Amino acid sequence: MRKLWIAVLAIIVVVASCTIGFLMLGRPAQEVGVKVVDQLGREVYVKKAERIVSLWPEATRVLFALGVGDRVIGVDSASRTCPILTRAFPQVANITDVGSVGGTFDIEKIAKLRLDVIFMRTDDRELAESIQAKLGVPVICARFNPPGKRDWSYDIISIIGTIVGKKERADQLRAYLEGKLSEITKITSAIPDSEKPRVYQAFAHDLLKTQAWVSEIMYGGGINVAYDPQRATSMGPWISVSLEQIIAWNPDIIILHGFGRWKPEDLYNDPSWQPIKAVKERKVYKLTMGWTGWDPAGTVVQTMQCAKIFHPDKFKDLDVEAEANKVFKFVYGVDGLYTRLKKDYGLSI
Amino acid sequence: MASRSSSVSFLLTLIAAPLLALVLHICIGKYPLNPTLIPSLFVKGLCGISEHNPEQLVLFNIRLPRAIMAVLFGATMGVTGASLQSILKNPLLSPYTLGISSGAAVGAALSLAFNLGVFSTEASAFTFALLATFLTLTISRFRGGLSPVTIVLAGIIVTALFQGVLTLIQIIAQPENVSAIVGWIAGRLNAVTWNHVLLSAPLAFVGMLGILLVRWRIFVLSMGDEEARALGMDVVKERLVVIVLASLAVSSVVTAAGVIGWVCLIAPHLTRLMIGSDPKKLLPASLSLGATFLLIADALAKSVWVYEIPVGVVATLVGAPLFLYLLRRSMHAYGV
Amino acid sequence: MIITVENLTFYYDSIPALRDVSVKIPCGKLVIVLGPNGSGKTTFLKCLCRLLRPKAGYVYFDDQLVWEMDPKFFAQQVGYVPQIHLPSFPYRVIDVVVSGRTPYLSALEVPSKKDYEVARRALEPIGCEHLAERLYTQLSGGELRLVLIARALAQEPKVLLLDEPTSNLDFKNKIVVMTVLRDLAKRGLSIIATEHDPNIAAMFSDEVMLMKDGKIVAYGEPHEVISEDTMKSLYGVDVEAISLSDGDNNCNRKLKLIIPRIALQ
Questions:
Q1: For residues C160 and C79, is the Cβ–Cβ distance under 8 A?
Q2: What is the pLDDT of residue A142?
Q3: Does B306 touch chain A (CB under 8 A)?
Q4: In the structure, do chain A and chain B come into contact, i.e. share 3 or more CB pairs under 8 Å?
């Protein structure tokens, strides 16, 4: 009989604690302030955005582009080491480091900062909910490739812009970038497939990893050799291939990561890569400028790079370096940023 | 007593199976290489005639090293798995249980995350793999006199320890480096070059050969420490020798090709289920079956789908049903 | 092979298992160590075959100190049959028996055809040739014991040490085993076996060693050592001793058997 009572008591305790926990976790941040719907469909209320923490480099870059970089009081470690940000805004290196994307954030460090809003990527819903519940601070999830979209969306700029009260600048930025992009795509979209070069883009740290979907190749008027219409959606971002497969694809152009450790010479000097057309014709380029996510200016700049390399005849008058500098100037207000990156990293164009 | 002819045919099977699988492996691949060209390409290549055509390059620089690495890896895993299971009297063990795989992973992670320029990633991985084994043996020696049970327990502790360190490194590291780390650890047969093969082959050979030479001692150890001692064996020393040989071989192939799972468990068991536990045949057969199995799994992994499938996944998908089937047929052997 | 034991003392942690045991065992005899559980029989046996290191005392085989002998050489002289063996893998009986040849093999060697012949011959005295190709995980407890004895015989030892060789055997196999041991002793092997049943000792042994609480309480021929008094002091059981002499019931020797008094009621 006693055992029965103990069992009943235990069940009651378990059910009660689960219910309480459930209720507490589901409790949203105080429903005061502007209502925002983030890219995970979460309804979040933001009172003010004077003290901001960004746990996602894309958001950090957008914040600086919007001109509110001084409001950012805490960032993840990838933001602090971003080659573009550290050159445009050296003070980034002094912002408090609160952890790393995908790792654990030092939640107490964040708590100490007395902040108003946190920006994260869309991949970690549970983490976002838990941070919001623990700190009572609104967490907004957004990124350049929101769930369900394979190409860039500049929505992240609008979302963040609205929250920090820089809607005008956000609209301006967005219009500029979309405009610059369409300048290129209106030419490249008219190019028939038969005239498009076949391109292989390698991952930063592994030449044998690539992506099934690469937006800038497409916008630049090229064809991604690793693209497979049936598979491109089901496969995650990075896929493994063998060198044999690359040789079989025989791409016309190979793109290496701009901030990665391989240079075109590494491929030119490796006998195993010789059969590939891109290597034979010395068409290996070091270009990509992602750093844990996209740079808003980078989306346009990379498309320019691709367009110029894929179709030099159609973009004869495009001086990539000059134009890229202009784009970076518009976005970050800094002169000659692309030239500096090109020199420091040995970018190909 | 097995007759002369049956042991000859046994030996022939042991050699023929991996050879056939090797031929299959070399003939398959994403590059359109007509298999009928292969023999002539081989002859030309061996005679030193280089034609600088893609076919020759694909065959000699890409397919051949990958196939040979698969043989080395599979054979090593098969024979070390079987021998460790015997001497530790536990059919559920793999060489990874002693901490080798998590040690190698930590070594690689440290190098990739913090760019320790002095040591290459391979050197670091190999060093830490051996360090982990050393730690396992030391803990087991001081806490339990290197008995089978304590070795396994120590191995579990060391594995957990290194896994913890690995997680820590991955948290601290930059996200790009984390991808690189994850990529290094997962089976990397698709990225293997002749360098990898040449680096790992010597120790793999030494380890495998050593284990084959002492296969009788391994058999006697598998029946119990006390009785082995009564038969004049220095149980602790001989067990240590086997573990060291196994660790050297496994560390070197894991350093070259990453941590490919499942082969080390499936190959020895498939062997036991197919040919029984005959002490003279078990270890050579595990070696052969391990190589054959991995060759077939890798041939599938590189050809079945548009992109590369991790070979460990294929090994599991192919091996597990085969294992179940054989198990049902042989349960009675274990007295069940 | 004369076995000399001097002042053998052994402790399990702080519990004494052998206290100052001294005895001289002549060669070519079947000696049974008789005693209740915990009397130190198994410990004594294990000290003799070097599986346990005594805290004090010496064991000599033919004037050679046992602990100074080369392990391989020792294993060629002494065969040990444990009471319990837990099989992990399904090996064939013949392979298990031929593992008894290990003391004659170097570290890199594998048993030869000759070794396998010795192994097969070792199965004959115990009538187990038909088991040679069976998997030893499928044997009964008794059959397994016989296989282990065959393994010890394959060592071609001069001394055989057995820990409770008749336990778990059926009536016939008890007799088979004890007869084999008696015949081996006649051929010159020194055999020491621990045993519970006084009658087995009485029926088959040449000499009996009674042990209690880690000490030897008596040593001698069975009909002298096994008596109503000794059984009472060893086991605390009242027994009636029945003597059979030369001429009674097909008997060619002096035999004294024990029946518990309670069974006579």
A1: yes
A2: 93
A3: yes
A4: yes
**B171 at interface of A, judged by CB pairs closer than 8 A:** yes
Nearest CA in chain B to C72: B232
**Residue the block writes with tokens 């579990």:** B156
Mean of per-residue pLDDT scores for chain C: 90
Q: Which of C85, C88, C96, C139 to mutate to test the interface with B (most CBs of B within 10 A)?
A: C88
Q: Among C32, C25, C94, C18, which residue's Cα sits nearest to residue C226?
A: C32
Amino acid, single-letter form, for residue C52 = L
Q: Which of residues 51-90 of B touch C (CB under 8 A)?
A: 86, 89-90
Domain boundaries, chain B: 69-334
d(Cα A20, Cα A22) in Å, to the nearest integer?
Answer: 5
More confident site: A73 or B308: A73
ipTM attached to this prediction:
0.90
pLDDT of residue A230: 65
Distances, alpha carbon A71 to alpha carbons A52, A66, A82, A295, in Å: 6, 11, 18, 19
User: Helix, strand, or coil here: A275?
Assistant: coil
Q: Which of C151, C145, C194, C133 is nearest to C170 (CA)?
A: C145
SS3 C245: coil
- Classify residue C96 as exposed, middle or buried by CB count within 10 Å of its CB (0-12, 13-18, 19+): buried
Architecture of domain B69-334: Orthogonal Bundle (1.10)
Contact C102, C130 (CB under 8 A): no
Q: What angle do CA C110, C113, C115 make, to 5 degrees?
A: 70
Tens digits of per-residue pLDDT, A172-217? Answer: 999 999 999 999 999 999 999 999 999 999 988 789 988 888 889 9
Residue B89: list chain C partners with CB under 8 A: 88
Token readout for B14 is 């042991």
Chain C interface, Cβ < 8 Å to B:
49-51, 71-76, 78-80, 82, 85-92, 94-96, 99-100, 102-103, 105, 107-111, 116, 135, 137-138, 155
pTM, full prediction? 0.81
Q: Calculate how close chain B gets to C77, using CA atoms only, in Å.
A: 10
- The rounded distance, in Å, linking the Cα atoms of C136 and A181 is 77
What is the pLDDT at residue B334?
59
List beta partners, residue C92.
C135
Tell me the one-letter amino acid at A209: K
Averaged over C123-148, what is the pLDDT?
89
Instruction: Tell me which residue in B112, B171, B176 faces A104 most closely, judged by beta carbons.
Output: B171
B305's tokens: 């789908």
A42 or B43: whose pLDDT is higher? A42
- CA gap B233, C75 in Å, rounded: 9
- pLDDT for the residue numbered A2: 79
